[in-house]
User: Which sequence fits this backbone?
């Protein structure tokens, strides 16, 4: 296995160069996937026979939820890399990804709540999914708050790494207990109907928007990481030259 | 090894009892928080009974968080924490002793106090043993997880509030299990399952939390 | 144009669908614009710093 790639990742300059080359492709992928997926989902996908047109919110709710959850796992992985290999880039990734993950959780919550009104009659229900998402948002806030509270960047990196790992270990426990709590307290009128299999005209645009959201997450993350890298390496020659070229 | 554990424990005990007021504070907080609820929602016993498990557990949670804030602070400030990190003895063991002591003077106290407040919140006497059992199994988890947060925020200015923000989401499974057990007991259903699950969490926390606490302390001290 | 107005109404669910999509669009745009703006600010700070050094 070629480990030189892994070691190159330790160099901020290498990351900056290579991300600069990859970014336009991710932007293109984002634009294509999201525009096709959303237009398809909004216009061409057939109505859901139970929920009518409000189900179209699925095309933004589900991708946001997926990204929100994957992002937290990414934070934990970045945390492990920070602690084990002391790679500064992993900390840059953790610090930059956390706010994006929080925003995605926010989108999932808001779209879930808006979707809930025509479906269940109220904007908020303490069902398992929304409650888990809310707790995930709190976990994100914790990581962001801890990162900002510690003034030494090095210490902050390690502390947020530990917190992310502790969080990710707890997430399955939290998820199971919330799911189970929901079954305890489900009112008798709330029927959990088995969903019929989605026809391809419905789930294919969902696949596109899911991929599109991941692509957009990557775009936002790379952009933020590039800015943060320039900021941290501000005193080096390559960073100064790069900034000079841009002005 | 055993000598170190004993010496450490005695040290914590002696230090704690030099300021007995500090030991009382979480318990008074617990009492006040619980008393706020009947004042807020009215003294109707049937309503209090339904709320009681939740109120007692949330109050226990908050009281534990409050008492954890200063867990490592005085050691950090006078430099003994640094000595612990540097010493040849395993930090995880020393940390475990410290948390165990903290639990003895806070969590265990809550277990003893809780039935009194349970009665005040109109809980029938036959569910009080369940209350004590769930708190007995749950408060160690609260102490252990909270100590992780205390270790990560040691030396930070906004410590207490940040600690609460970090740790409260992690408390949710214990909360759900503890109150679930109480609700089952109130309905006359068996609670063994809940107790076993709480025991599971306790064992998990006991084995994994000291690692995270030690890591957090090393990070905090190295600053 | 009844096709368009029907589309916008979404069978009565219009406000929900469109508000959800609008909020999402704003948040996503924010997540892309914010780093872009931050980068511009960094560039101008660097230019200012260089001018000060040359003096």
Assistant:
């Amino acid at each position: 296995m070629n480990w030189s790639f892994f070691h190159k990742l330790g160099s901020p300059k290498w990351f900056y160069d290579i991300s600069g080359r990859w970014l336009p492709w991710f932007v293109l992928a984002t634009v294509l996937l999201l525009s096709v997926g959303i237009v398809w989902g909004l216009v061409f996908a057939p109505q859901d026979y139970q929920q009518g047109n409000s189900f179209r919110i699925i095309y933004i709710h589900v991708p946001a939820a997926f990204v929100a959850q994957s992002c937290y796992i990414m934070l934990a992985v970045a945390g492990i890399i920070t602690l084990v290999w002391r790679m500064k880039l992993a900390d840059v990734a953790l610090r930059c990804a956390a706010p994006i993950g929080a925003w995605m959780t926010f989108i999932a919550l808001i779209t879930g709540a808006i979707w809930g009104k025509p479906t269940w009659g109220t904007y908020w229900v303490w069902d398992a999914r929304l409650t888990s998402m809310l707790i995930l948002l709190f976990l994100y806030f914790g990581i962001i708050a801890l990162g900002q509270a510690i003034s030494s960047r090095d210490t902050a990196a390690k502390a947020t790494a530990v917190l992310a790992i502790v969080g990710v270990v707890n997430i399955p426990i939290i998820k199971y207990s919330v799911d189970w709590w929901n079954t305890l307290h489900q009112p008798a009128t709330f029927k959990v109907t088995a969903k019929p299999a989605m026809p391809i005209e419905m789930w294919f645009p969902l696949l596109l928007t899911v991929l599109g959201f991941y692509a957009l997450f990557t775009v936002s993350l790379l952009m933020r990481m590039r800015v943060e890298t320039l900021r941290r390496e501000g005193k080096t020659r390559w960073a100064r030259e790069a900034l000079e070229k841009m002005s | 090894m055993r000598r170190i554990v004993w010496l450490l424990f005695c040290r914590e005990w002696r230090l704690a009892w030099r300021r007995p007021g500090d030991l009382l504070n979480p318990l008074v907080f617990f009492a006040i928080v619980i008393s706020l609820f009947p004042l807020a929602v009215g003294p109707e016993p049937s309503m209090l009974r339904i709320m009681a498990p939740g109120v007692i557990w949330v109050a226990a949670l908050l009281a534990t968080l409050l008492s954890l804030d200063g867990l490592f602070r005085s050691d950090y400030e006078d430099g003994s924490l640094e000595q612990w990190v540097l010493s040849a003895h395993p930090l995880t063991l020393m940390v475990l002793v410290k948390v165990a002591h903290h639990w003895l003077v806070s969590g265990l106290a809550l277990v003893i106090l809780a039935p009194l407040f349970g009665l005040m919140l109109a809980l029938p006497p036959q569910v009080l043993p369940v209350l004590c059992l769930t708190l007995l199994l749950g408060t160690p988890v609260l102490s252990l997880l909270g100590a992780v947060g205390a270790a990560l925020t040691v030396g930070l200015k906004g410590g207490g509030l940040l600690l609460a923000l970090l740790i409260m989401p992690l408390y949710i499974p214990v909360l759900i299990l503890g109150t679930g057990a109480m609700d089952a007991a109130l309905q006359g259903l068996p609670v063994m399952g809940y107790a076993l699950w709480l025991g599971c969490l306790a064992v998990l926390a006991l084995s994994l939390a000291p690692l995270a606490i030690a890591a957090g302390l090393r990070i905090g001290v190295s600053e | 144009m009844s096709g368009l107005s029907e589309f916008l109404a979404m069978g009565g669910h219009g406000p929900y669908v469109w508000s959800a999509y609008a909020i999402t669009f704003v948040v996503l745009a924010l997540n892309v614009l914010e780093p872009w703006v931050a980068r511009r600010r960094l560039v101008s700070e660097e230019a200012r710093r260089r001018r000060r050094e040359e003096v």
